[in-house]
Design brief:
Elements: H1 3-31, H2 39-62, H3 64-74, H4 81-97, H5 100-112, H6 119-142, H7 147-164, H8 167-180, H9 185-199, H10 205-208, H11 212-232
Helix pairs in contact: 1-2, 3-9, 4-6, 5-6, 5-8, 6-9, 6-11, 7-11, 8-11
């Protein structure tokens, strides 16, 4: 790879970052009529963001995605649906533990609630829910179950729990679901699901390989709502 190719690759990433940075700067200066503070820091931070994002995406494409796809294709070697479901739970749980978005959300929740909702408790609750959702998604693929067959009961459960849970937990649950769909979970879990779906003769990757991220997010919603119900009890 030549220097030109490397610079071109970085420019592709920069085109996604620079517009939002420029828009915010222009909006602040022209609309809000506020000066930009610490411009040097802003420039350096933007450059670091572009470099970091590019390297992260490159690393994901070279490691997690092919590894997850390979693992998914070989899961059938276990020849035990229960073991495969347990494996899916473990992967979903620990992948959620490293999501930066979830950690940022949990820190804000702990701060705003003055410690009433500890960061570690929220993160672990979301991780458990995400892991359960991941297991449901893998079971769906293994048994060729339509997504709507699982989704409707999950949505109904979330609605019932949302009625009994404190209001603040309902809002946190929705944001927690969004925070789990980050740069680690989506490529890893999607790769595993698609890899497994491609290797099964009874499964169509287009029909069964997708939808798993939605199920994992709903699992996170339900787990936080359950936590809210338990605090009320």
């Amino acid at each position: 790879m030549t220097v030109f190719d490397i610079l071109k690759a970085f420019w592709e990433t920069a085109k996604n970052v620079l517009p939002i940075v420029l828009f915010l700067c222009v909006f602040k200066v022209i609309i809000l009529r506020k000066p930009l503070e610490e411009i040097n820091t802003l420039i350096i931070g933007t450059l670091l963001s572009i470099i970091g994002l590019h390297l992260f995406l490159k690393g994901i494409s070279l490691s997690l995605i092919p590894l997850g796809d390979s693992v998914g294709e070989n899961l059938v070697v276990l020849n035990n649906k229960y073991l495969i479901a347990i494996f899916a739970f473990v992967v979903g749980y620990f992948a959620t533990m490293v999501e930066p978005g979830l950690k940022a959300l949990a820190m804000e929740v702990e701060e705003i609630s003055t410690g009433a909702i500890p960061m570690n408790v929220l993160i672990k609750a979301v991780g458990i829910g995400f892991g359960v959702g991941m297991s449901l998604g893998i079971v769906k693929i293994l048994n060729n179950i339509p997504t709507k067959t699982i989704l409707f009961p999950v949505l109904l459960t979330a609605m019932v729990l949302g009625y009994f849970a404190p209001r603040e937990f309902v809002d946190i649950a929705i944001d927690s679901a969004s925070a789990t769909t980050g740069p680690v979970n989506i490529p890893l879990n999607m790769a595993i699901a698609l890899g497994l779906s491609k290797i099964l003769e009874t499964s169509d990757p287009l029909l069964n390989g997708f939808g798993i991220i939605g199920l994992t997010s709903m699992g996170a919603v339900i787990s936080v709502l359950v936590l809210g119900v338990l605090t009320r009890i």
